[in-house]
Amino acid sequence: MFFNFTTAGESHGKALMAIIEGVPAGLPIDSAAIDHELWRRQQGYGRGGRMKIEDDKVEIISGIRHGKTLGSPIGLVIENKDFVHWQNVMSVEPPQKPARRKGTDSSDDGNAERAVTRPRPGHADLAGGQKYGARDLRNILERASARETAARVACGAIAKQLLAVFGIEIKSHVIRLGPVQVVPLWRSWDEISAMRENSPLRCVDESAEKEMIKAIDDAKKQGDTLGGIYEVVARGVPVGLGAHTSWEDKLDGRIARAIMSIHATKAVEIGEGVANAGRPGSQVHDEIFMSVPPAVAGGLMPTDEAVEANVQPPATAGGSDYCRRTNRAGGLEGGITNGEEIRVRGHMKPLSTLRKPLRSVDIETKLASDAAFERSDITAVPAAGVIGEAMLAIVLADAMRAKFGGDSIEEMKRSYDSYVAALATY
């Protein structure tokens, strides 16, 4: 049995929905923890007006009884509070008045159909309209909206609760926003964990964060948007998830796919993959040792002198006594987890809805026009990091289920414990 999910719902529809399959029976579920993850997704300096409307809470409608999973599909619903202003526009039934109002992309009239005919460069509007034959691009943008990621975060919150049983934790932080980059990029787990939960941009460097905030303010004045880079880190992942035997079983490929699927993410990096492309092999591959200290700032571990002084730290996750003094591979070798921290970076482009619209073409008149504008953020890089946590949690939960199976959480734990005990003798 694998951990998988699907979502449904539109940005201004009645609700978002998700169904999760493959969660073992008997897993305690904290719904407040799911709501907390939804809250984290909505935070971040530079977010737009939609965040002031929505107060996301999850409603669990199936698969859980008396606080524990049943082993059956879990159904989740997240209400869209803004739907009250869009009931006619997003009605399931045909509209009362068939006439369509053109040029009403930004109308506040709840009775208007608000047809969209001016595609935004960089968005799914035009390509989606051409693919599906939609003359009203709202049929595309409503589902293409990043609002869908609220449902992903809810699914990821359940995946995190499954992983926590096995001591696996996941966190994220922002390492670049617009022109401002944290130096050095590599930050320890302790530094990331020490960030305030209400940090404006989830950045470990408060000085860089202030510069990022200024960059956001400047972009807002210009009617522009900013992208950036977020890093997601998983600690406690055992050796042996994923496989080298088939391209589709390589876990780094599955992680890359999951992160790339996040809205506006246009590149994915695992470990120091980008920098490694320009280095000689002697400066890339992580040498193997027995029981050495964990990584510190800069990506390097303590000196040989510290090792020789009998500093004996915790071993690699999952019971293995083999360690690496560096983690440039980002916790994966040959598509298999090696027990080190998994580190993956998502490169997010600037959002495609600009207050100062880019040039476009009206698909009805074929005349040059400004692109459509609806509510948007100046940036959403911190939120993308939270979504990245959810997607990494889902991939790891799936890999854990594939390796250790079990119809109940107790059975899965027995399999895991047996594996870890065997690993310790290798």
Structural features, described:
The structure is a single chain. With 426 residues, this protein is of the alpha+beta class. The protein contains twelve helices and 17 strands. It has helices at 31-42, 50-53, 125-132, 138-144, 149-164, 189-193, 206-221, 251-260, 273-276, 304-308, 381-404, 409-423; strands at residues 4-8, 15-21, 58-62, 64-65, 68-69, 74-79, 169-177, 180-181, 228-235, 265-270, 288-290, 322-324, 332-333, 336-337, 342-348, 359-361, 368-370. A five-stranded antiparallel sheet has the order 8-7-9-15-10. Strands 1-2-6-3 form a four-stranded antiparallel sheet, with helices on one face. Helix 1 (31-42) runs antiparallel to helix 11 (381-404), helix 3 crosses helix 4 (138-144) and helix 5 (149-164) packs across helix 11 (381-404). The longest helix is centred in the C-terminal third of the chain and has 24 residues, at 381-404. The chain is globular. Residues 104-112 and 296-314 have low confidence and may be disordered.
What's this model, at a glance?
This protein is of the alpha+beta class and 426 residues long.
Describe the structure using short key phrases.
single chain; 426 residues; alpha+beta; 5-stranded antiparallel beta sheet; 17 strands
User: Got a strand count?
Assistant: 17
Helix-strand category? alpha+beta
Helix content: 25-40%
Low-confidence stretches: 104-112, 296-314
Query: How far apart are the first and last residues' alpha carbons, in Å?
Result: 27 Å
**Largest sheet at a glance?**
5 strands, antiparallel
Beta-strand content estimate? 15-25%
Q: Count up the helices.
A: 12
Order of helices and strands: EEHHEEEEHHHEEHHEHEHEHEEEEEEHH
Arithmetic mean pLDDT: 90
**Adjacency order of strands in the biggest sheet:** 8-7-9-15-10
| Rg estimate, integer Å | 23 Å
User: Which overall shape is indicated by the principal axes computed on the Cα atoms?
Assistant: globular
